[in-house]
Design a protein that fits this description.
alpha+beta; 8-stranded antiparallel sheet; 24% strand
Length: 694
């Protein structure tokens, strides 16, 4: 498989600005605009940059607070050796080329490239002089200048590279050229806020929030800076919006922000945890549209995965192993002891199902989700084999990512396949199709090797009881059943939840960013707000172990890898709202000491709900549930609280409130439900760090 690579660079040179002072760089998450400002002599310079989805361009605006002070040179450059720049008319500079032959060092082979590329820089200045040559653009003595950058390749699909990048750039630049800077900015901000402002989170603020971000990160685990957790959450949503929009490729290992020709792990899609984690915040974070590129990639890998299923295994359906790339490779890669892992595609199918669970969109289920899920399930109908010792159906040869070593029957495989079969069964029932296939899946699912509790009280990672309590590996493969799945849950499988807790505790605090992000989600599912917060604090960093770079990008610890940004954002959401195991849980893993007062608006829950919550001084004060679908649902209040009343449209509604304070509500689409809590009940002791027995 092949790496995701950078396109090129826009280089700006400002003569006489080496001794600049009062330098400030900031990203406004609410507008999606980056600003750089500084002072040279008695002149203040300001630069704004944004990437516009509506206009498909990157826009740079350079201005000064005194007239005639903007002078600079702009150049386009590319790390690809076949690139060259050419003037296009009096106001554009083009960077053109074809990707070079690529030397894949791991296997010592050289491959011819098939992609051509072109970028186009449009320049306009307010006053002064503008000169465009083949070497670059010179602006002299202007009041301000606007640069508009478009880029394209010949890629149309993994089966078609006949695109015309020059024509694509021409069209984009032609449309953008008719719009002044203000209109370009206005369209970008409106599009950005349409998504970003759907969720508002406030966990309180302290003096620490006045410091620059790079000074706040090292002390987060030791100090009191709840607003940095908010920043981390909203930055994760911002990154997903910026790297995964309809029509784009999905967010890869570095989102889209890779600068190396041969990056770590090829900066592509690793689907034994990392790609899935990238999309954990999509639905709950009210960014369902951002899930779309992942679904588009799934449509592609079904095509290539059919060939792999037939050639490698003699099976029907389709299969994807632990990596894929732009060309939709689906076969095992790297080494057999970890490359042979056939459940990557099945795990991705969970995302199709989650989109349906959150939206209730049966048209999406019938058109997009079920056909892919059904074919993935068909592969495992053929692939599963009977274990001669137990009679269970097991998966193999496979491995438990990323432990390595080929085995038969790793727990994670079975959990994923059970989920896959369950979603295929329920989708078939909902759509009223494939009754015979559904019955077959029901019978096969019963026979899949179950989750097992081992001699240490742990959830077994393998078919055999061979877990090592001193294994502190970063990957938590066999805990998939707890999160993101709901096969294991406190209220439905208490013994398995306790065993999962034991396995999680054995692993320690997680040595890499994405491992800690997963732990935040897992402890949240276990209802342990204190340990979920502890892992979040370690994820953000402390003085001895920084897991964030200065601009809040997650490290692994090296190099930059984006999955922890997304996983951490999902973990914060999971601490505030849970919607698995057949109920809505309000503040299920609330760290009351760290976040005693706050509110959240706009988080989404399975069943078509949108949730607003508020709390003050350690007590929940209000909850508002906005229903998108009809149907009953159990609502669980925060620990130590009891739902005392439910109102809709200002009128009190009858609600069945159980002894533990939960209420069973009958929702109607389009209506808003306000919940009140019994404050006297809230005086019960706080939940301890260990919510489950040893």
């Amino acid at each position: 498989q092949f790496p995701y690579q950078p396109f090129g660079d826009l280089l700006l040179e400002f003569p006489g600005h080496k001794n600049a002072g009062r330098y400030r760089r900031q990203l406004d998450l609410d507008s999606g605009v980056t600003t750089v400002s500084y002072r040279v002599g008695d002149v203040t310079f300001r630069r704004e940059v944004f990437a516009s989805v509506p206009d498909q361009v990157i826009v740079v605006r350079i201005a000064a607070d005194k007239p005639g002070q903007v002078s600079f040179t702009a150049k386009l450059d590319s790390p690809h050796p076949n690139g060259s720049t050419t003037a296009v008319g009096s106001d554009q500079l083009a960077l053109r080329g074809r990707l070079a032959r690529f030397e894949y060092k791991r296997i010592k082979q050289v491959f011819e490239s098939v992609l051509g590329f072109e970028a186009r820089l449009l320049v306009s200045a307010d006053g002064g002089k503008t000169k465009v040559t083949d070497e670059g653009v010179d602006i002299e003595g202007a009041d301000a200048a606007t640069l508009v950058l478009a880029a394209a390749t010949s890629y149309k699909s993994f089966q078609d590279v006949s695109g015309d990048p020059a024509a694509r750039c021409d069209e984009v630049i032609r449309v953008a050229a008719d719009k002044p800077y203000g209109r370009l900015r206005e369209a970008h901000v409106a599009d950005h806020r349409r998504l970003f402002r759907r969720v508002d989170l406030d966990l309180g603020s302290t003096e620490a929030s006045r410091l620059p971000t790079d000074e706040r990160i090292p002390g987060f685990a030791e100090g009191n800076d709840p607003q940095l957790a908010v920043l981390y959450f909203q930055f994760g949503r911002y990154l997903l919006m910026a790297s995964s929009r309809p029509g784009s490729q999905p967010a890869n290992l570095q989102g889209i922000w890779n600068e190396d020709l041969q990056p770590a792990w090829e900066s592509k899609w690793t689907v034994n945890i990392n790609t899935e984690m990238n999309y954990w915040p999509a639905e709950v974070g009210n960014l369902a549209e951002c899930h779309g590129p992942l679904f588009d990639m799934l449509d592609d890998v079904v095509i290539s995965g059919r060939k792999t299923a037939q050639v490698h295994y003699g099976c029907r359906g389709w299969v994807l192993h632990h990596n894929t790339d732009l060309w939709r490779g689906t076969a095992p890669i790297n080494h057999s002891n970890h490359g042979i892992w056939p459940t990557g595609g099945a795990w991705l199918c969970r995302h199709l199902w989650e989109h349906y669970l959150f939206s209730g969109d049966e048209e999406f289920l019938a058109r997009r989700a079920y056909p892919v899920i059904k074919e993935a399930a068909l592969f495992f109908v053929d692939f599963l084999v009977e274990d001669p010792e137990t009679g269970w159906l097991i998966s193999g040869p496979s491995n438990s990512p990323e432990q390595g070593g080929l085995v038969m029957g790793p727990t994670m495989d079975h959990q994923i396949i059970r989920d896959l079969f369950a979603s295929a069964i329920e989708a078939s029932e909902t759509l009223g199709v494939d009754e015979d296939f559904r019955r077959q899946l029901v019978e096969l699912r019963k026979r899949i090797a179950p989750n097992q509790i081992g001699r240490h009280g742990q959830l077994q990672e393998w078919l055999e009881d061979k877990d090592d309590p001193n294994n502190h590996h970063r990957h938590l493969s066999h805990l998939y059943g707890l999160y993101p799945s709901d096969q294991i849950a406190l209220g439905t499988t208490a013994e398995l939840a306790a065993a999962a807790r034991k396995s999680l505790d054995f692993r320690g605090d997680g040595p890499v960013g994405w491992g800690r992000a997963w732990q935040v989600c897992l402890y949240a599912r276990l209802g342990d707000g204190q340990l979920a917060y502890d892992r979040l604090a370690r994820l953000i960093g402390d003085n001895s172990n920084l897991n964030l770079f200065n601009q809040c990008w997650a490290s692994r610890p090296m190099p930059f890898q984006i999955d922890a940004n997304f996983g951490g954002a999902a973990g914060i959401a999971e601490m505030l709202v849970g919607s698995h195991a057949g109920e809505i849980a309000l503040l299920p893993a609330w760290p009351q000491e760290a976040w005693p007062t706050g509110h959240v608006q706009g988080l989404r829950a399975r069943g078509g709900l949108e949730v607003d919550l508020a709390w003050r001084n350690g007590r929940a004060t209000s909850a508002v549930l906005k229903a998108g679908l009809d149907g009953p649902c159990r609502v669980r209040p925060p620990k130590g609280h009891r739902i005392s009343a439910v109102r809709c449209g200002g009128e009190a509604l009858p609600a069945t409130v159980e002894q533990d304070g939960t209420a069973i509500l009958e929702f109607q689409a389009g209506k808003v439900y306000e919940l009140e809590f019994d404050e006297a009940f809230a005086k019960s002791p706080r939940v301890s760090r260990h919510a489950l027995p040893d």
